[in-house]
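Human: You know discrete backbone vocabularies at least as well as I do. Show me how you would write down a chain together with its backbone fold. No explanation is needed for now; the record alone will do.

Assistant:
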Amino acid sequence: MKHKKYGIQLLSAVLLSFLIMLLRGLFQAETLADKVLIICDGFTITAFCFLGIGALIWVSTTGWFDIFGFAFGKALHAFIPGRVHDKAESYYDYKMKKAADRKPFSERSTLIIGFVLLAVSIVLTYVWYQL
């Protein structure tokens, strides 16, 4: 099951990279250097997307976004008092409840795929400079 997750994410990353390459005009490029640059751009953009999403997933498991959930709940209760049930709990109680329910960070696959794509784009950048 673990390898399936990596395979699906890698396939989606390669497809997204290829779509970006098509949008940048891969088949209309005249020189080899232009084609390598377009391929490098596709992998770089996809790598940064995967790294950004992976970083957000990681940060969300640390509890950094708990304050936003708490504030959003309080704001909803202020604007719609009858519809939202506000438990008169403090932020500390809310944070402790969320920490008890939180799973440890196990979704490293998005970050790993992002770093792999970034490594590919770095190698392609080196190749482009050699052309």
